[in-house]
Amino acid sequence: MATARRVVVVSRSARGIDERGLHKTNLAALREALIRVARPGCVCLIDGFGVPAFEHEQRAVVGGDGLSAAIAAASIVAKVTRDRLMVRAGEQLPNWGFGAHFGYSTAAHRAAILEHGVSPLHRMSFQSTAYQQLAL
């Protein structure tokens, strides 16, 4: 972080993802982040896929976090940010244990959903075999 020229974090709500879909929401968030960090003449390296309607040169790099230090750093910033948000969510919504499982589909997470239902942070559009199995 000390050597980075710019670091931008863009987040979206579960409700927004449910309304627009995960892929469209991800593209819009990525586009917003790139607009905020890109400068004239730069080439933006993007992990996995390109961003439509983006005015700067870009390169989609499949497996980018293993090939580019910049993409790897962005992945770490995203993971640390998400983990911190989950710790805060765990404090505000203690019944779901977000601070312990960080939103991943663990046995404890699934058990909390069975006991308490979904929280305001859960994406209703999320299709997981694990969650589908809860209904069986």
UniProtKB/TrEMBL annotation:
One of its GO terms (molecular function) is RNA binding. GO terms for biological process: DNA replication, removal of RNA primer; mismatch repair. Pfam families: RNase_HII. Keywords: Cytoplasm, Endonuclease, Hydrolase, Metal-binding, Nuclease. It is found in: Cytoplasm. Its EC number is 3.1.26.4. Residues 1-136 form the RNase H type-2 domain. It catalyses: Endonucleolytic cleavage to 5'-phosphomonoester. This is ribonuclease H.
